[in-house]
Amino acid sequence: MTFREKIQQLRKGASEAQSATKIIDKLKALKDSNGPNTSYRWIWELIQNAKDVVNTSGFVDIEIKFSEVNKTIEFNHNGRLFTTENIVF
Questions:
Q1: Helix, strand or coil for residue 75?
Q2: Regarding predicted confidence, which is higher, 13 or 77?
Q3: Could you tell me the pTM of the whole model?
């Protein structure tokens, strides 16, 4: 791997980490706000963000898994990675 490729790889990783952090921050802000519909809005925001980053075919598949036992939600899509611009709402 050349030095240039290594720098590009590091920049891409940093960008992905920044986007993930921004998603977490926005979801926490939604969770902490006290609006009557806030507790439901965050999932729609994730779905909308996924629709905004369709893959090369022009489509996106979204999968949401709820585990009541583990108290977790897993959100997956096959579109492009979210960017900071996708997350502003």
A1: strand
A2: 77
A3: 0.54
